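Minutes, project check-in
Item: structure for the 277-residue chain
Input as provided by the requester:
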Amino acid sequence: MRYGFIIPGGGVRDIVELGREAEAAGWDAVFYWDGDWGVSPWVTLGAIAAHTERIRLGAVLHPLPWRRPWLLARDIATLDQLSGGRAVLPIGLGAVHDPEWAAGATRTGEVIDRKVRAQLMDEGLDVIDGLWSGEPFTYDGQFYHLRDATLDPTPVQRPRVPIWVVAAWPRMKSMRRVLRCDGILVSDEWTPDDLRAMRAFVEEHRGLDTPFDVVMEGSPRGGDPQETASAVRAWAERGVTWWLEAMWSEPNGTEDVRARIRQGPPRVEQSRDGDPV
């Protein structure tokens, strides 16, 4: 099990300092959120990369249909270069079910139709993968068209930066997208049976030989990391490989977040064979 912390907000300099403190406290990754307005996650993560050496870096959650995929491919490749190969790309459709999010997207002319956004995401994945190859890339989709496009530099990580995707089990269209990626973001609504069935499906049908992660986002349980560790242990036993801790609810000011980061991740003890105990 590995552990990431999602910084919920704050001033840019505070966010960078919190990222540095997360590494010092033993977290395995630090994330920022990709909102409509405010701090740019990629610029901020680049600054964190310059002040850290080990932790992975990414934005949770990035709505891929909201971005031009060739620009996103460039930004993530740049972050991977700056960090020496520590970027990760978590993606989703965007919170189209949230009226506030949908209203904001409508004001800027974004597509909110779920079917169209799914098509945009699938084509976006095609484009990102093609550009990260470093070879001249031509693409003719319904929405995106490229002619002999070459990205330089490409990511440090090969064959690519790990891509994690939100998906709904057992919807096959959604799960086929998972098979193209390197991890799945799951919610606490998933049952143990859901997780077992999903993992069996991925193991049977995924044609890639890269590692595959099961990523769970959750909130700290009270003020005691051991209480959170008990909850994390249950998810580890079900096959979850990453715990991303988030403080979306108040109190979550900069000093509250700093105090939690300094406590360190809610580590689950493991037996010699690697199983949680």
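Outcome recorded: The mean pLDDT is 92.
No further action items on this chain.
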